[in-house]
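Anyone up for a design puzzle?
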């Protein structure tokens, strides 16, 4: 089946897959957001114990999805992987460090003879939830705002040259923290993770104090989230985007490019609008009513919003990783992808994705078949 597809079609197919994985990843950041609220929502040891174990049952979903996201990017668009991960390494190392200490924390937090103490690992969980989500949002924002790198494909044939891309900033990724749009999306992702975490507590934990505290703090986090998200979206819609003509790959600036992409691809634009509305709807019904289903409305909305934002920067002749040092070094799904043969072989592997998704849904339901309470935890052989 995939043998009949052109390279152009396979490139778009794999960008759709990466966009979908990105949407699922951002939804699963509710684990990270919840970790920043352990001591805020949990006012007693029992409540904190419930929160940590509720999140602990899901942290591997987020970690695994992050690894799959990076792996899919590496295999399908290796030039991006080598350019960004090899150049902006301080930014990506910061993200990686935050996720490593999360894994360590859940594994060792409640181990016997833990000489660091639970509080130390709780701090690690907070760092993962706060700094990890913020830096991830900053990194994704550079897909719109650009980074300082150059690419010279001629280096492939030059003896003694080990890389075809070069990072042109001594800060190696940390310069992204000086851009207001990058900071806006970083804060928006951080606050969205907290909002999703609170919605998850409402749905997953059977404790009235936790539910009441979650609804109260939902308002405090939702308002700044909407502000920073709108600041980012309006900022990119009104700014120049990086365009190219298919075939020539000549990069040029185009006013309102990211907004025009939604207008010229109305289905993608409509899905983006629906996604944003679903996120807001899930928040509102959770605040004004006793429903615990808000996480599913906002969760699906998050996946749709992120999915369409990624399509916005990859499709319609748009550079998904622009260089503001040298426009012509900007990466597109056409000049940064693997060969047609590699994409074709990987496409057969991608046929397993529905089965993986079914397994994840089954595992989620098996873990989450009813709201968690203290009686269930007391009967558990393993607790975090």
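Challenge accepted. My sequence:
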């Amino acid at each position: 089946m995939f043998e009949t597809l052109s390279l152009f079609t396979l490139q778009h197919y794999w960008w759709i897959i990466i966009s979908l994985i990105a949407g699922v990843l951002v939804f699963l950041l509710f684990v990270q957001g919840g970790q920043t609220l352990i001591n805020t929502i949990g006012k007693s040891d029992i409540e904190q114990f419930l929160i940590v174990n509720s999140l602990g049952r899901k942290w591997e979903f987020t970690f695994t999805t992050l690894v799959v996201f990076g792996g899919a990017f590496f295999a399908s668009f290796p030039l991006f992987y080598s350019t960004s991960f090899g150049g902006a390494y301080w930014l990506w190392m910061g993200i990686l460090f935050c996720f490593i200490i999360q894994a360590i924390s859940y594994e060792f937090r409640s181990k016997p003879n833990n000489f660091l103490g639970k509080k130390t690992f709780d701090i690690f969980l907070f760092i993962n939830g706060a700094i990890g989500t913020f830096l991830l949002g900053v990194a994704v924002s550079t897909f719109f705002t650009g980074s300082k790198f150059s690419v010279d494909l001629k280096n492939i044939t030059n003896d003694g040259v080990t890389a075809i891309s070069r990072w042109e900033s001594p800060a190696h990724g940390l310069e992204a923290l000086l851009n207001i749009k990058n900071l806006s999306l970083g804060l928006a992702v951080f606050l969205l993770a907290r909002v999703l975490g609170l919605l998850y507590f409402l749905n997953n934990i059977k404790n009235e104090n936790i539910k009441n505290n979650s609804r109260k703090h939902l308002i405090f986090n939702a308002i700044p989230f909407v502000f920073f998200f709108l600041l980012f979206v309006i900022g990119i819609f009104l700014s120049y985007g990086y365009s190219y003509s298919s075939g020539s790959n000549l990069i040029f600036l185009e006013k309102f490019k990211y907004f025009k992409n939604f207008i010229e691809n109305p289905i993608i634009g409509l899905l983006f609008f629906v996604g944003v509305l679903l996120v807001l709807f899930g928040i509102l019904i959770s605040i004004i009513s006793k429903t615990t289903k808000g996480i599913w409305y906002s969760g699906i909305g998050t996946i749709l919003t992120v999915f369409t934002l990624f399509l916005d920067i990859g499709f319609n002749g748009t550079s998904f990783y622009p260089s503001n040092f040298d426009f012509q070094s900007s990466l597109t799904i056409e000049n940064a992808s693997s060969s047609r043969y590699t994409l074709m072989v990987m496409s057969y592997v991608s046929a397993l994705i529905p089965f993986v998704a079914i397994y994840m849904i089954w595992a989620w339901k098996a873990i989450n078949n009813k709201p968690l309470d203290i009686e269930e935890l007391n009967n558990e052989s393993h607790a975090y």
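A detail worth pointing out: Residues 208-237 form the longest helix (30 residues).
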